[in-house]
Amino acid sequence: MPRTKFSAILHEKCPRCREGNIFTYPLSKVSRFSITNENCPVCNLRYEKEPGTFYGAMYVSYGFNVGMVVALFIATFTIGNDPHLMWYFIVIIPALILAAPFFFRYSRVLWLYFFSDVKYNPSLADKAQGTV
Ligand SMILES: [Zn+2]
User: Fold this and answer.
1) pLDDT per residue as tens digits for the range 10-53
2) pLDDT, tens digit, for every residue of 103-124?
3) Is the dihedral of CA 6, 8, 11, 13 positive or negative?
4) Where do the TM regions start and end (predicted)?
5) CA 17 – ligand 1 centroid, Å
6) How many domains, the chain?
């Protein structure tokens, strides 16, 4: 059964076959979160087709970070009833550090899915699963 686009994005799978992993290690290996496979292990798609392919992912990551900072600022303001300025830093800076690996990976995944011009090819996934 083919994987949905949402499921493939959630599990950080290749945009072409939706089966191969984009990253070498799982997110739980925090010290190696940024190591990206050069090619898809299933369909051999080259993820970084030219140098700087992932520079654009920084814009996606920027959007994630700004969104989180604004949300945490509003939450801190509302819950803390406009607390001292230090409370905003105490809440927001650790959240940014903790979210960095997550934002790094999903910004690359979203960049590959929505801006890299790679189309889903279900027959590649079928071949990998041996159903064809
Ligand atoms: Zn693939």
Assistant:
1) 999 999 999 999 999 999 998 999 999 999 999 999 999 888 88
2) 999 999 999 999 988 999 988 8
3) negative
4) 54-79, 85-104
5) 4
6) 1
